[in-house]
Every structure is written in C-alpha cells, then in structure tokens.
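Late entry, written up from scratch paper. The run itself happened at the end of the previous shift, but nothing got recorded in the book at the time, so transcribing now.
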Amino acid sequence: MHGICSPSGSGRCRAFFGLALATLVGVGAGSSVWGQNRVAPLYRETYVSPDVKSHQGYAYDGTNHYTFDNQTIYKWRDDENWTLIDSNKAVLAGLTGINHLGDGDFFEGKIYIVAEAWASCTNFANQSILVFDAGSLRRLEAHNVSAQHHEVSGLAVSPHEGLDGIIYVTSYCDGSKLFKYDLRTFDYLGTLPLSRTLNGLQGVAWHDGRFYVPEDGGLLYSFGLDGRVSLIYSDTHHGSHEGLKYIGDNLWWLIDEGRGQQRIHCLSEAP
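Output as recorded:
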C-alpha cells in the first residue's frame, strides 16, 4: 500500500496499531503554512516497530534502519522482525568529556549524530557532531561545535542548501531557533529563527523544503525556511518523544515508553 509505512518501497502493508489524530494549528491569520491555502494533512499512526533498545534517535539508509541509544548505535534489517545486523557500543571510545548521543541522520554512506556531555540545560559541554561509516558503524570524524554555546539534541542534513549542504541542529534547551553548520567543513553558518519558541526539542527531520521537530511532551511541529511554525500532530503515548525522520510519505518517530517499549512509530498522512 503506497504511503503506508513502507520505507523500502517494497509495498509491504504492516499491521495497524493505535490511532491518534492531531489538532492542527495554523500560524498567521487567514493563511496556511503549507502554502496555496491548503489545509495541512492529518496524520495517523499506522505501524509500530519491535523494541529497538534505543532512547535517542533514528535514521534510515533506504535498506537498513539505524537507532541511537545514549552510547550505542544499532543497525537493523528492514524485515518484519527488525533483525539486528550490527551494533557499535564503543561510539565514544577515544573521546574525552562526552557521554551522550542525540538524534542523527544518514547521508551518502555516513551517519551524522550530535553528542555532548549532558547533565542538564545548565550543565552541558563538548557539544559535537560525530560522523560514522554506515557500513561498519566505525567512527570517522568528530567535530566540536561548543564555541556557539548551544546544547545539541538532534540534527538533519539538507544536502542541497548553501555551497556544500547544511546540517541543521536542534537544542533541547533553546527552541527559539535551529543552528546551521556547513556539511563539508562543519563551519558555523548562523541560525534559523522560529516564529515561536518550542520546548524540549529532541530531534529534527528535513523533507521537501520543510522541517519537522518533536517536543518531548509529544507535540510535532513543521516549518519551512521562513521559520513559521505549525502544529501538525499530538501524540498520546506516555514516555520520551525523541528523534524522527521523514521517509517516503511517512514520519518515523522514536518514542521511549520504558524498557522493552523503545519503538519506532510510523505516522502516515490520513487519506
């Protein structure tokens, strides 16, 4: 079934689980943030993965799934059982002053993930962007971005912006903007201010000119390069709402409801 949680394009129709619909809120009188006066679509949850033993984030390379725990990367086969292919439980080996991964993204054979030493919004340090080989999960690069003094909770790669592509980074502690870094050099490029401040951002996805960001409390927002924020979904699951990615026609969202229930939830546009 096209558009229903089948990122590999195989056409598999997976089992339906719970349904939660959003109340949609437009920003700006008389206009839709989706443009052309179109109403933003409702989303519904159409699939939940098996437990992925991960708390922080999610990515997909077109063939395999990747999930990120505090100090581990897992690689899963895109089959019914999400068979574990590989893992790297030493992602921080050789680094000092870092104890915590965030959300990440896949691009051109590499996994990009934010990392830092995290204790609280008044106690974090060594904010970094780490780069891993997606095949072996071996760490290739580590880039310290702490000079900008913002916390790092997730990132998304926008490969066709700027001179070389842009990495957009969210902060759990400052939801008034996104932070921009050059994809090739990791130089700081400034910020993308938002029309309203969001709370507890846990990650970011980029798709077709729009960003998607989840608040930890379960609200999901979207905005374009103008930063005009719109609420598109309200989730009802208890637990921590973490990183997400947009794949095909669907949003894939890591929600941690506790040990044994750390799963990827797929949201599809309602017909």
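The radius of gyration is 17 Å.
(Scratch paper discarded after transcription.)
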